[in-house]
Amino acid sequence: MNRKMRSLALGLAAMASLVAPITAEAMTVQPVVIDLATAGRAMSEVIIVENTFDRPLAVELTMQSLELTEDGVHATGQDTQELAVFPPQAVIQPGERQNFRVQYVGDPVLAKSKHFYVTVSQLPVQTDEGGANIQLLYNFQVLVSVAPGDAQPSITISSAEIGRNAEGQPVPVIVASNSSVAHGYLSRGRLEIVQRSAAGQELFRKELTGPQIQQSLGYGLIGGMQSRRVVLPEPLPSADGTVTVRYTPDA
């Protein structure tokens, strides 16, 4: 399979993974979020890939650094050689699992957290009968973050306003700020949303738990010393008035 066709297949697989349930003909990858340290035993973690296909599964793990902006997480496409993975490739037999160890090997002194994607990619396999290679290839991205020292995140909501979602409905739009050098996740806490009318009457109140945040927003990564704009998927009863949002981290 040439480079163009392989890229197309990977793109189709990425879209399929967003809309289709995991079936017997798939591979599973866990965990999908990893937190590492710059020293000690927490420098490394294991990614487990299970082959639930009915044929051998060839996979390859690649790394790229991430850039965190106010609007989210963006892949740079560059491997900065700060993560090492062993083995980088493997062929997994049907029903079997393979452990891949990911370790941070970069600078032990960090000014703030660093972030990476480890992509687990299915490779094309030639059939025994000499037929065509598999055309639909799956890939999974594992978020790997490395925090400096023993720092802990300190996330607060620095602003909240009423905006619009893609359907034109009024929704809360927040700016989540992290004053620590260590990254954190909105899904490891609770969000309380309160809307009031111009006269001060309460119109709406709801608390989102960590699992609810993760289901609707994902993990909600907030980098070290970063502010991130987040549109909360909670339609409000009115576009008028004010909205306040409070974040409480898990104990």
Automatic annotation (TrEMBL):
Keywords: Signal. InterPro entries: Ig-like_fold, PapD-like_sf, Periplasmic_pilus_chap, Pili_assmbl_chaperone_N. Transmembrane segments: none annotated. This is Fimbria/pilus periplasmic chaperone. Gene3D superfamilies: Immunoglobulins. The lineage of its organism: Bacteria, Pseudomonadati, Pseudomonadota, Alphaproteobacteria, Sphingomonadales. Residues 42-141 form the Pili assembly chaperone N-terminal domain. Residues 1-26 form the signal peptide. Pfam families: PapD_N. The keyword Isomerase does not apply. It comes from Croceibacterium selenioxidans.
